[in-house]
Amino acid sequence: MKVVFLEDVQGVANGGEIKEVKNGFARNFLIPKKLAVPANRNSMQRVQKLAKEAEEKRIKVIANFKALTNELDGMQISIESRAGANGKLFGSVTDTIIAQKLSELTEKDIHRRMIQTKDAIRETGIYDIILNLYPELTATIKLLVHATGTEPIWEEDSEPQDSEPQDSEPQDSEPQDSEPQDSEPQDSEKAS
User: Has domain 2-65 been given CATH number 3.40.50.10190?
Assistant: First the structure.
């Protein structure tokens, strides 16, 4: 089905473009959400006007996202969560929780899909979180996850890595030698 796009649809087309799309996509998604109209004589005559309106709207949206990017870039936020003595969280800090916290602080709508983490955060520590606000507009924030009832402590010397917890203290519970791991395969060879 040939349609004229009224607005930008990310990954499909920009406003004012005429494209051939699947019938179901047009009837079930694009047309009901008023993102596109069927390409008929009337809509084809309005293509230039629609393209100009879509371009103006795109410029406003990009300007708003650039301002939001400048506001968020380098921001430091802290999230309190229940954790055990070893720093492991009883739950996890997800993209949704981070988005809610950012929305509270900025008073702007930040969707969870804008937040790029590899996995849910399951340990206390400092994390670098990448926000993909709009195509080619990204911001990086620092997130401190700390245990409930403790004060958030920002360590200036530490450099967090992408969604990886900071190891500020070595854990005594984990063996640092690889001897037990090496001895197991030798035992299995002797048994053979």
Answer: no
Q: Which amino acid is at 20?
A: E
CATH class of 73-147: alpha beta
Q: What percent of the chain lies above the pLDDT cut of 70?
A: 80
Q: Which of 17, 14, 13 is nearest to 4 (CA)?
A: 17
More confident position, 161 or 22 = 22
Residue with tokens 């890595």: 161
pTM above 0.70, yes or no: no
Residue boundaries of the structural domains of the chain? 2-65, 73-147
Cβ distance 76 to 141 under 8 Å? yes
